[in-house]
Write the C-alpha cells for this entry.
Amino acid sequence: MSSLDAVGAMLVARLLDHLSVISVTGDEALLCSQIATEQAANGAQVIRHGNSLVLSRFDAADTRPLVLLVGHLDVVPPTEADRVPAVRHDVVIGRGSSDMKAGNVVALSLLDDVALMAACPYRVAVVLYAGEEGPADGNELAEVLMHEPWLATAELAVVLEPTDSLIQLGCLGGLHAELVFSGVAAHSARPWDGENAIFKAHELLSEFARDHTRQVMVDGISFTDVWSVTHAYSTGFGPGMSASPPVRNVIPDRFTLNVNFRFAPNRSLAEAETELRQRVAGRADVTIVDRAEPAPPKRDTPLVAKLIAVANTDVTGKQAWTDIARFAAVGVPGINFGPGLTTQAHQAGEYVPIAALVSAYQTLRQFLSDET
C-alpha cells in the first residue's frame, strides 16, 4: 500500500467512526464525550465547555505562533439516504460528511500526529463546537471564545467548512429587517373605503426585483451584495402570529416583508443598516430583527498568504456568513478551507469525495510542516 493509500484509508476509517454518532444540533453530547475520551487517551489536553472542545498538545511555556483548526460537531437531521455511513466507489456517505465532519476528521488526524505537532513551527489547537446549524444563541463558539481568551491571540483560524477544496476568504455580513407597510382596512367589495397595505409595497418590491445584486471588490476578492425578500404576510399572519390566515374579504391595513440583506465585508453593520434604511426611504417602518457581522478577507496577512500559496488553488470570497466572523470580531484572521462539497451540505444522501479528504489533509500538513 502506498503512503497516499494509507492516508486515505486512515481518514476514511476515522470519518466512518465520526459519522456513526449522529449529532443533530442539540444532541452533540455523545460525540463530544467520545472525542474528548479518545483525545485524552492519546495524550492531548482537553478543555470542554458545554458540548464543545478545545484540544491541543502544547504547554503554557510554548511561545510558537498559534494556529486554530476549527469545526462544528452538529449536523442537520439525517435522511434514510445518509443515516447509515458507507463507502461507495470514491465517496464516503453519511449525514454531515461534507458539512462538516470530513473537516473535523482532517483536523483531529493532524493533531494526533505527535511528531508533526512537536516539529511544527506553530502551536496548534483544534476547536470543535456545538450548535452551528441551529439558532445563533445556541452556537457555543461564542462561549468558547469568551472562556478561553487565549484563543484570540491566534495568528490564523482555519475553519474547515465545506469549500470544495477552494480557499474562501472573509464572509458576508447579514441583516434581517421587517418592513411594515400601513394602510386602512376596508371591506373588499368597497376597497375605496380603505387603503390596501399590500399595494403600498409594490414600488419597493419592483425595485428589489430589478436591482437585488451588486458586485463588490474587497482586497482583490469579489463578493456579491444580495437583497432578498424571504417572507410576506398581512395582518395577523406571519412569524409569531396566529396560524390562521386573515379574513379573505378584508382589505389589509398592514403588510410585512422580511428583507434579508447580505453585504460584502467592506462596511460595518451600522453602515449596512443605514444603507437599508436609505433604500426603504420612509416607505415602510423598519425593524432590524437579526444582525451578523461580516469578516474581511485579510488576504495579505502573513499566514493567510502562506496557506494560499501552499494550497495553490482558486481563491474566492465566502458568499455566505460563517463563524469565521466570530474570529474576525476578536482580531483573528481566518480562512474557510475544507474538503466538503458545498452542494452536498444538507442534501439527502450527503457525501464527500475521498480524494478531497486526502487533499485537504495533505495541504494542511504541508502548511503546518512549514514546507513552502
